[in-house]
Amino acid sequence: MRRGECQVSSDGWTETKKTIKKNLRLLALCAMLLALSSSADAQQPKKIPRIGYLTTGSLSSASENVERFRQGLRELGYVEGKTITIEYRYAGDKLDGLPDLAAELVQLKVELSSY
């Protein structure tokens, strides 16, 4: 008997029915494995984007601008600590410290920087 051919037994389609049942079981098993693997992929933790916020001045002097920045992000649907992380760096009055603070943010591999 060649592949793809069914042998008909004396009582009719017995062999054909067995083959169909076997193929259906195999198909059901494959479908279940596919469903399980796709749901496992969906449950993988997503990387939270990191934003770098670099500014002159101190935390207290920049607080109004920082709050406006946060509010704008919230209006876009971002939640600090849940959907994004923000790395804040304040240079104070020492503008010569800006390159070092920027280098820190680069080392942290921020995806976006706000200056």
Structural overview:
- By secondary structure, this protein is α/β, with parallel strands linked by helices.
- Helix content is 49%, strand content 13%.
- A 3-stranded parallel beta sheet has the order 2-1-3, with helices on one face.
- The longest helix has 29 residues, at 14-42.
- The chain is rod-shaped and about 90 Å long.
- The model has no long low-confidence stretch (mean pLDDT 76).
Low-pLDDT sequence parts: none
Strand order of the largest sheet: 2-1-3
Global shape: rod-shaped
Distance between the termini: 76 Å
Helix content: 40-55%
- Beta fraction of the residues? 5-15%
Number of continuous helical runs: 3
Tell me about the largest β-sheet: 3 strands, parallel
Oligomer: single chain
Supply the helix-strand structural class: alpha/beta
Domains (count): 2
| Rg value | 30 Å
Overall average residue pLDDT: 76
Name the features:
alpha/beta; three-stranded parallel beta sheet; 3 helices
Structure, briefly:
The protein is α/β, with parallel strands linked by helices and 115 residues long. It is built from three helices and three strands, in the order αβαβαβ.
Itemize the secondary structure elements and their pairings:
Blueprint: H1 14-42, E1 50-55, H2 59-75, E2 85-90, H3 98-107, E3 112-114
Parallel strand pairs: 1-2, 1-3
